[in-house]
Design brief:
Blueprint lengths: L4 H18 L3 H7 L4 H29 L2 H16 L8 H30 L6 H25 L5 H18 L17 H5 L4 H14 L1 H13 L4 H28 L2 H21 L4 H9 L1 H19 L5 H30 L1 H22 L5
Length: 380
Amino acid sequence: MAIPYWRLSSFYLFYFALLGSTAPFLALYFDHLGFSSARIGELVAIPMLMRCVAPNLWGWLGDYTGRRLAIVRFGAVCTLFTFSLIFVSKSYAWLAMVMALHAFFWHAVLPQFEVITLAHLQGQTSRYSQIRLWGSIGFILTVVGLGRLFEWLSLDIYPLALVAVMAGIVVSSLWVPNAQPPAQGDRPAGEGFLRQLASPGVLAFYGCVALMQLSHGPYYTFLTLHLEHLGYSRGVIGMLWALGVVAEVLMFLAMSWILARLSVRRVLLYSFLLAALRWALLGTLAEHLWVLLFAQVLHAATFGSFHAAAIQFVQRSFGSRQQGQGQALYAALAGTGGALGALYSGYSWNTLGPTVTFSIAAIAALAAAVMIATRMKEKT
C-alpha cells in the first residue's frame, strides 16, 4: 500500500507551524502585554504542565478504542475553539485558563498522530524523518514570516496569526487517511504497558526525556527576549530560530543513514552532550553572532537527532497495543520537563541572570548524558 506522504506531511507542516508561532513569540507577546518574567514563565509553563496529563489520558483512550484519527480531529477542532477565547480578555487569570484549555486538546493530537504515521509506514520507519521534516519546514515558515511581520505591525495581531495556523491543523487532519499499527508478534497480548516500561533502559530513557526538555526551558521561554536585550532585531531573531530548524531538517534527512550506523543509545548520548555545549554558549557568548550561529546549528542535535532517535526507541520498546501509551508518556514527560524548565527559568531569569539560568540547563543535559551512558545497553 502506498504511503500517503503528502497528507501526512501536511499535518506535520501545520502542527509545527503552530509551535513555530508560539516557541519564539509567546513570551514576547506576554511581555508586550506587560507581564513580569515570573508571570511569563508561569503562563508558558501551563501548556507544558497540561502536556504531563493530557497525552496519557488521550493515549489510553486511543489504545482502548483504536479511534486515533477521530481523537486527532476532535483535538484539533477543540484546540482552535478554546484558544479563540483569548479574544475575550487579556487578564492573567483568563490567559492562564486559555493556555490550559487549548493545551489539553493540542497535546491530545501529536502522540496519536505519530502512531498513525508509523502505522502507514509499516516497517519503513526510516522514512519517518522524511515526513517529519515538513514539520520543521512549517516551523521555519512561521518563525521567519512572523518575525518580519512583527517588525512592521503590532504584536496585537499575534492571536489572529495563531488562530489561522490552528485552522490549518483542523483542515489537514481531515485530509489524512486512517491506519492501525500492525500486531507485533514479539509482544504477547498479555504483556502490559507497565511490564514493557520496566524493560532494561526504558525508565532511564524516559527520565532523560524529562531532563532534555527541562534543559530547553530558558531557550523556549526567554531566548527571544534575551536576544532582543542584546540588540538583535525581531527579523534577525526570527531567522536565527529558523537557522536552528534548517539544521534540524538536514539532520532528519540524514537520520536514516545515521541510525543504520550508530545505535539509538549513541545518538541520544551525543545529542545530550551537544545540548550541554549549546546552552553554555547561549548563556555566556550570545552577544557574538558567530557563536550564536553555531549554537543554533546545534539544534540539529538537541532536537533533530534526539527526537528521531527517541521516536524509534519508543516504537521498538512497546507492542502495538501500547504504542499510544508509549508515545503519550514520551509527550507527558517531555511536558513535565518543559514545564519545570519554563518555571525555573522564569523565576531565575531576573534574579540570577541568563548565564546562571542557561548553566542550569547545561547541567540537566549533562545529567541525561550520564544516565544514558550508565543505564542503557548499547544494543538499543
